[in-house]
Amino acid sequence: MMIVELEFDVPAAPERLAGRAAHRELLGRLREEGRLLMAGPWTDDAGALLVFDVDRAELDRIMAADPYYALPGVRMAAVREWRPVVGC
């Protein structure tokens, strides 16, 4: 599994919000396909966490296909491989 943590820059919110609908549509498709387990913003909207059930190569393809990750105001804070032992 792969974990992606995003950070959002508040001054660039209009640009980020303009791309959010298409991003969420893609996330919905990834969820239906079983490649995305969960995703959502922090309660203070300072960033988001996404949990993918893919390897790093597939994650890189997913992220390259979604322009949201390159929008002003969206910064990749961390990408980590995760091995859950409880709950999945």
Automatic annotation (TrEMBL):
InterPro entries linked to this entry: Dimeric_a/b-barrel, YCII
Residues annotated as domain YCII-related: 1-83
Signal peptide region: none
Family: Belongs to the YciI family.
Name used for this protein in its record: YciI family protein
Source species: Streptomyces litchfieldiae
